[in-house]
Amino acid sequence: MRIDAHQHYWSMSRSDYGWITPELPVLYRDYLPDDLKAHLERHNLNGTIVVQAAPTAEETEYLFALADRSESILGVVGWLDLFDPSHREQFERYRKHPKFVGFRIMIQDMPDANRVLEPAFLKALQEYAAMDVPVDLLVKSSQLEVLSALLEAVPGLRGVIDHIGKPCISEQIFEPWASQIEQAAKHRNIYCKISGMVTEADHAAWEPDHFKAYVAHVVRVFGAERVLFGTDWPVCLLAASYDDVVNVLESSIPEAWGEPERAKLYGDNAMKFYKLRTE
Q: What is the rounded distance in angstroms from the CA atom of residue 27 to the CA atom of residue 17?
C-alpha cells in the first residue's frame, strides 16, 4: 500500500486555524478530500494520514467526520493537550474512532520548548509510551536539543519526527541539526517523516540539489525501516506543487535503493508505525 503519511485538510468556515490568514492567500481557502483526489491517483497513492492543523479537540473531531466520508483517509493524527489534566478522557474519546492513529505534540509552537520536560508532561507522555501510542513530534531544528532530552526521559516512546526536524534548508545549514537528528535516531522506536522540506527552503528559488544532503543524512541514520514519505500538502503549496514535492524526494533518495526500500518509504513504514490494518 502506498501512503502519503502527512497532509492536512481544513475549512475556513471554522475558527480554529488562527495561523492561516489572508496574508497567506494560497492557503486561505478550503482544502478537502476532493481537492487531493487527482494527486493521489496520479501518484498511485492508496490513501493518506491526515494530521491536525489546529490545537483543538474540535478540529480533531472534524477530521474524524471527514474520515467517515472518505476512504482515502487511512488514519487521523489528532490534537491532545498533555498539560490539560483531562487529556486522558479526551484520548479515550478519540480512540473510539476506528481511524484514530495517534496524536501530535506541537513543540514548534511553544514559546518555551522546555515545558515538555516538566514532570507532569513527562508523566503523561510516559503513560502513552507504555500504551505504545504513536506520537508525532513537530519541532524546529533549534528545539532538537530539548527533543533529545525528552526522548531520554521517555525512552520507550513510539514517535515520529515531522518534517525531518525542520533544518535551515534555505541557508543550507547542516549542523548542529545533523548531529542532533542522528542522536534522535539512536532511539529505535523513533521514526522520521521526509516531509515539509520545501517550506524550509527558499520558497522562490529552491533547487532539487538543495535537499539531497539532508535526505541522505536522514536515510543514513534512520535506515530504510524508519523513514516515511509525506507531502505536507497543502502547506507545501507555499513553495511547491504536490508533484514538485514528490519529484524532490525521488531525486534525493539513494540510487541503490530497490523496490523493497522504496516500498517501506512509500507506505510500509507508515502502516507499521501507525498500526494500520490491512483489510
A: 11
